[in-house]
Each structure stands twice: as C-alpha cells, then as structure tokens.
Amino acid sequence: MAKESRGPAELVRAAAVARRHYLEGQSKTEIAADLGISRFKVARLLDLAHERGMVHIEIVADGEIDLDRSARLQEAFGLRHAVVIDGTGLDFHTLSEHLGEAAAALLAEILEEGDVLGLPWARSIDIMTHALGQLPRVDVVQLSGAMEIPGVDSSAVDIVRRAARLTGGSSSIFHAPLLLDDVVAAQTLRRDGAVLRGLAEASRVTTAVVGIGSWSAGLSTVYDAATPDDREQARAAGVVGEIAGRCFDAHGHLVEPPLAERIVTIGADELRGIPEVIGLVSGRPKACAVGAALRGGLVNALVVDTVHADALFEDVASATRLLDAQGAAAG
Question: Which architecture, in CATH terms, is 8-51?
Fold first, then answer.
C-alpha cells in the first residue's frame, strides 16, 4: 500500500487498533465489532500502523536458538529442519555441547514410533547422544565403523547402544574400525557376516544424524587418520569433505578416492536413500564442506552455529551475484 497523508485522528485510531491486535491479542473481527467498523477497515489501519513505523516486528532468539537465522536458513536451502545456535563467546567444547543438545531436542521432537534412527561414529554424534532424553520407541542402526580418538572413550557401538537404551527399541551394531590399514583387510571385514548384516540394516533408516567433516587437519577424523598420500590422492580427486567416511566433492557428488577401499561404512545408495539426514556441524570452520553437502542433497536438515549459518548465507549471496553478472553479460 502506498503511503498516504493521514490526519492525527486516523493515526491515533491506527495506533489503537495496532495496540489491540498486537499487544492485547484481539482478532480483526473482534476489533471491528468493538469499534463499529469493517474488518477490512481494521486491516487498512494495521497497514497504516506498519507504514508509519508504529509497529516493529522482530524475530528474536529463543535462548540459545537464533530463530531468525534458523528460519532463513531453512528457507534458503529448502531444508526439512534447521536449528542455528548462537555461539557468541562460547569456546569450542561448550559450543559443541550446545549443538549436541539442540540436535537431541530436535530428534525428540521429530522422531515417531516406528522410525529407524541411524547414527555413524563422529565426535559430534557422541556428544549428542549424551544429551538425549526420552525418545519414542525406535530402532537404532549403526552406520559406520569407529575411530580411536585420544580423549574419546565411546565407540560407534557405544553410541548406538546408548541411544537405543533411551528409545526402548533394538540396536543394530557391528564391531569394526572405520578406516583400515590395507584393502584386503577391509574387504575381508566387509564380508564378515556380522558386519554385512549390520550395514544392510542401513536400508531401514528413516532419520540419520551425521557429522560433516571438512578435508583438512583437525576438521575430519578420517583426514586425521589418513596417510599423507591418502590425503593428497583424495584432494586430487576433488574431495572437500566426508560424511561417515563417504567422501564428496564441491558439488556434493560422492567420490571414491583410493582410501575408500579401506573404509567400512554405509553404502552410497543407502546414504542417499535415507529420507531425512540431519547434519550436525561442530563450531569449527567447515562451511565449504557443509555447503557442498547441501548442494549434493547429502543432508536435508542442519544443526549449526551462527558462524556457519552466516557463511552459508554468504555462499547464497555470492552465487546470486555471479548469476546476476552472467545475466547482465549475456544481455
């Protein structure tokens, strides 16, 4: 509606209507009846109140959750769910705990009885399972082998069993490392009956929570465990990140560098077949890998901090500027 010159009486009436509607919670129909005017007149007065700056609408954070960024992130990437945690002033460990708590709360909200929850080994997933409360009765499936990390006692089996105790459902587990030293050992292990049956259970998963590793030191447990040759070969293949040991490039396409033959984890088709995959991203810079995972559809929900959210928004803005420039050049 274009701004119009209005007298003081009209402006006072607009302010009164805005107060009734926004502060006192009256509906437009109730206000119309009380004031003896039409509902459409009430709507016009509310529009006037907005135009003249009488009303300011602000979406504020709900405690740790930045609701505005969460809503914008969900809309920008078409996500099923998005939760952005305000990490201002938090150290890495504290932020990781807050992100884990948010992911645990999201699972408690969206899981329904009969769902199947898939969990790989990751430090972020370990933290999340310690924050889980009571969950609906769902089965829990292990999606990958485990890594030995200094200071982390939980294995992939521990993570799955911990979650299953809270759901009351069954746990599907297998004992295997995520990355082995040689190809023959990995092939032998993948043919083992218990491992074979465990990995086959991934086809039942309806919701998974996964960490997203960036192909850099300290940002991926797989990268850290790999040899220098492994790392360079993967980088040469275009790898920018990994999810549960499954490597992907900048477009989010799954790729198989040589070290993939030594990894025991969920199959590529099974990973892509999970209806909801929630990416839980720790508070260190992984925006490049997260953006790639989103572009490739490897995850369709996110729990991240404000730094990652803002970096993803900038990616969208940069892509938009590039398209605009290309359009202008073509014109």
Answer: Orthogonal Bundle (1.10)
The CATH number of 67-318, from 3.40.50.10320, 3.40.50.1360, 3.90.120.10, 3.90.850.10, is 3.40.50.1360
Task: Name residue 89's beta-bridge partners.
Answer: none
Tokens of 290: 């997260």
Q: Tens of pLDDT along 143-167?
A: 999 887 666 667 889 999 999 999 9
Question: Average of pLDDT values for 35-41?
Answer: 94
**Residue 134, token pair as written in the block:** 């009571």
47, 21 Cβ separation under 8 angstroms: no
Going from the C-alpha of 229 to that of each of 92, 248, 257, 289, the distances in angstroms are 30, 18, 11, 21
* pLDDT for residue 89: 85
Query: CA-CA distance, 138 to 115, in Å (whole number)?
Result: 5
Mean pLDDT of the chain: 89
Residue 308 has pLDDT above 50, yes or no: yes
Q: Which residues of 112-138 are buried (b: 16+ CB within 10 A; e: fewer)?
A: eeebbbbbbbbbbbbbbbebbeebbeb
